[in-house]
Specification:
By secondary structure, this protein is an alpha/beta fold. The chain is built from eleven helices and nine strands. The chain has helices at residues 20-31, 50-62, 74-79, 113-127, 150-160, 179-189, 211-223, 228-233, 258-272, 304-308, 312-321, and strands at residues 12-15, 37-43, 66-71, 132-134, 169-171, 245-252, 278-285, 292-299, 330-335. The chain has a five-stranded parallel sheet with strand order 3-2-1-4-5, sandwiched between helices. Strands 7-8-6-9 form a four-stranded antiparallel sheet. The protein folds into two domains: 12-233, 3-Layer(aba) Sandwich (Rossmann fold); 239-343, Alpha-Beta Plaits, CATH 3.30.70.100.
């Protein structure tokens, strides 16, 4: 009997991050009856362990035969200078703070991550006589992640096909699906989305403004179902009982745009302070360099920045100042310590 004939074609290996896409994929593959089912998760130096905690819960819920968390933290040390997703890397940007040129490959891209993780998964599968590896690439990843595209999938499979004895094939069943479609599928499969994590920043509650938080919120909205993670975390109170989120947005504008930026930003601030979710919205300008501003935004809850960015005045401001930036805006988030939230 040939080596290929000995392959356990009914088995499968699923890359499981603990996010909504990979968790849905795990249950999708399990429902198809693939057994033995293996799940692989990777600790590659991410900013937080929330996803990996969720991965453990999802693996247990799917009844996998084996779930391993691979220690690949050396990748974080090697690559942190090239990714905001890694501990010690640059700050995670809000989606709306990304410069248009960054959207083709955003700061949260981890250099060559999927190729490396899939190579390890293929080796793991081959060692166990399993022919198929699944990962959760989906259509909306394609805008910024080349290693989540159909072309990437075809080319990595072309390489794996060179194996002369036990070729392994990589599958991405969601590569042409939107996140909303994945949510709808997951609901049918009974995926507990309260036990998935998407936010790049970690924390007690999702930030609501990083690229994946925005994508997740939009996906559940388009699917027409509430996100149980938000329902579960909305009652969590950070340290001291304060739930306000204070954001400092650092802005550097082109020298010839200072007055226009000042005018547009003050008008946006006037409208913003009228929002029920905003306690204050300050605009300050650096004395020794008038091209630099800081926007001090105090939100009553972590969900309010996302609501603010849906307003007409914010969208007008964003479009107005888009070409005035000397460099991409940077935001830093703070927890309120004093006075208590009630004092704002």
């Amino acid at each position: 009997m040939s080596a290929i004939a000995r392959m356990e074609t009914s088995g499968a290996v699923v890359l499981l991050s603990g996010g909504m896409d990979s968790s849905t994929l795990l249950h999708h593959v399990a429902r198809a009856g693939r057994a033995p089912l293996h799940a692989l998760s990777f600790d590659y130096g991410q900013r937080h362990a929330r996803e990996l905690e969720c991965a453990c819960r999802q693996a247990a819920a799917a009844g996998v035969a084996e779930h391993q968390i691979i220690d690949a933290r050396f990748l974080g040390d090697l690559l942190k200078q090239g990714s905001a997703l890694l501990e010690g890397g640059a700050a995670v940007p809000d989606l709306d703070d990304l410069d248009p040129s960054q959207r083709d490959q955003p700061p949260t891209y981890v250099p060559n991550r999927n190729m490396m993780l899939l190579a390890m998964a293929a080796a793991y599968a081959e060692a166990r006589g399993v022919a198929d590896v699944f990962y959760g690439a989906q259509a909306q990843d394609e805008y910024g992640y080349w290693d989540c595209t159909q072309v990437f999938l075809e080319r990595i499979n072309a390489l794996l096909a060179l194996n002369r004895a036990q070729p392994v094939q990589v599958h991405a069943p969601f590569v042409a699906m939107t996140k909303a479609a994945i949510v709808k599928l997951g609901i049918k499969l009974g995926v507990d989305y309260a036990q998935t994590w998407t936010c790049y920043r970690g924390g007690a509650v999702p930030c609501g403004t990083c690229p994946t938080c925005v994508e997740r919120r939009n996906a559940f909205g388009e699917a027409g179902v509430p996100d149980p993670l938000w329902a579960q975390t909305s009652g969590i109170e950070p340290q001291g009982g304060n739930i306000m989120l204070v954001v400092h947005v650092h802005v550097h504008v082109l020298p010839g745009c200072v007055e226009a930026f000042h005018e547009a930003t003050v008008e946006n601030a006037r409208q913003s302070v009228l929002e029920p979710g905003i306690a204050r919205f300050d605009v300050i300008q650096q004395q020794d360099d008038p091209t630099r501003f800081v926007l001090v935004e105090a939100y009553r809850t972590a969900a309010d920045p996302a609501r603010h960015k849906e307003t007409a005045h914010y969208q007008t401001w964003r479009e107005t100042v888009a070409d005035m930036m000397a460099e991409p805006r940077q935001s830093v988030k703070y927890r309120n310590c004093f006075p208590d939230d009630a004092g704002w």
